[in-house]
Amino acid sequence: MLKPxxxxxxxxxxxxxxxxxxxxxxxxxxxxxxxxxxxxPILERNPALRGEGEVFDFLIGDWDVVITWQPKNGEPNTxxxxxxxxxxxxxxxxMQEWRGPTLTGAEFRFYDIDSKSWTGRNIYADGDWRExxxxxxxxxxxxxxxxxxxxxxxxxxxxxxxxxxxxxxxxKSDISLDEGKSWTKGNYQMIVKRTIDK
Length: 198
Description:
The chain has a 10-stranded antiparallel beta barrel with strand order 2-3-4-5-6-7-8-9-10-11. The protein has one helix at about 5-15, and strands at about 25-30, 60-70, 75-90, 95-100, 105-110, 115-125, 130-135, 140-150, 155-160, 170-175, 185-195. The chain has one domain: Lipocalin. About 15% of the residues are buried. The protein contains 1 helix and 11 strands, in the order H-E-E-E-E-E-E-E-E-E-E-E. It is globular, with a radius of gyration of 17 Å.
């Protein structure tokens, strides 16, 4: 069980993630929270993962992110983050590490060869785990996150990766409160460019 002080710090981090601090014309340049060693090996996808098992290939590597949060009521907040993605577990799992100015997190995506489907888990700063599924849709990649909050109950957060190129892509979010029967625009979108060593 978390002691009171770490619990309070974790809650503050989560709340700060949603705080609106600037307008859409300004991209925040707050220092990004880094791990002691931000580098980790990329390795390679297991060759047994073919077809749908290859859909995360484009994401492997390091990325510079500009993310914009747009609450229903309030000004948008735009800031920078880092995203590192690599293969682990014998090249069968994609591990994604998110590093932003107020929040870090990790995502794990596993490809089941038998069902030919991706499942995953996201871990957040407060220790909350959320299940995910992922699949290709034409030239796009769609990741669906299963969430819950007290205000709306269960919800789906659909992230669509699109305009995918070797060194850039974009991502938008949509929300469903009725198990995917209908969707509304989500609170965030991202412009993502591959990190180029200088």
